[in-house]
Amino acid sequence: MSSEVWLVVGLGNPGPEYAGHRHNIGYMVNDELASRMGGSFKSHKTGRADVVEGRLGMPGNPGPRVVLVRPRSYMNTMGGAVLAVAKFYGVEADHVIAVHDELDIDFGTLRLKNGGGDNGHNGLKSIRSSFGTGDFFRVRAGIGRPPGRQDVADFVLQNYSTVEKKELPMQIVDAADAIECLITEGLEKAQSRFNS
């Protein structure tokens, strides 16, 4: 295992038709991190994901190596792609950070944790199944519950509301900051700063 490389997996569905959906917050956060690293996503040798390699940290004090991963498979089958990229870089589950939408947390709120179940999230379920463990980090970006009797699947596969879109850039920046803090300072500090 290489403790020098972190895999940050942005959960989402590939393709422009999904780009603005609540389910794609992981992709959006990874786009922010890629911008900070001065890189753009390129096809990985496995052919199963797009990646950006670089370092996160202060100028003049670069942090550990980080690989941002955007799986090319859909949410419910992405685990295989994530595992393939992890094996390529020699990364174990304890150096994987999954960034995903979370129904049980209000919109605009973040929670970081290590391990746990998948809470019905197909992306987490797929990663957990492929790695054979749920012992990876999660950065959970709250999207809240659907209004009224709206179906959960319909809700997550919709664009953010007009009101949410105004606050979304701040949630993305906060999530990216939280990931940097988690990688450079550890889970406890990141939780105390970002778990709202």
TrEMBL record:
Cellular location(s): Cytoplasm
Signal peptide stretch: none
Family: Belongs to the PTH family.
Keyword field: Cytoplasm, Hydrolase, RNA-binding, tRNA-binding
Function text: Hydrolyzes ribosome-free peptidyl-tRNAs (with 1 or more amino acids incorporated), which drop off the ribosome during protein synthesis, or as a result of ribosome stalling.
Site positions per UniProt: Stabilizes the basic form of H active site to accept a proton: 101
Name of the protein described by the UniProt record: Peptidyl-tRNA hydrolase
Major subcellular site: cytoplasm
Pfam families: Pept_tRNA_hydro (PF01195)
PANTHER family according to UniProt: PEPTIDYL-TRNA HYDROLASE
PROSITE patterns reported in the protein's UniProt record: PEPT_TRNA_HYDROL_2
Broad enzyme group: hydrolase
Residue positions of the active site: 23
Discriminates between blocked and unblocked aminoacyl-tRNA, annotated site positions: 13
UniProt keyword 4Fe-4S present: no
Oligomeric form and interacting partners: Monomer.
Alphabetized SUPFAM superfamilies for the sequence: Peptidyl-tRNA hydrolase-like
An example Gene Ontology molecular-function term: peptidyl-tRNA hydrolase activity
Residues the entry annotates as binding tRNA: 18, 74, 76, 122
EC number: 3.1.1.29
Keyword Ligase recorded: no
Entry-linked HAMAP family: Pept_tRNA_hydro_bact
Gene: pth
Catalytic reactions on record: an N-acyl-L-alpha-aminoacyl-tRNA + H2O = an N-acyl-L-amino acid + a tRNA + H(+)
Gene3D superfamilies given in the database record: Peptidyl-tRNA hydrolase
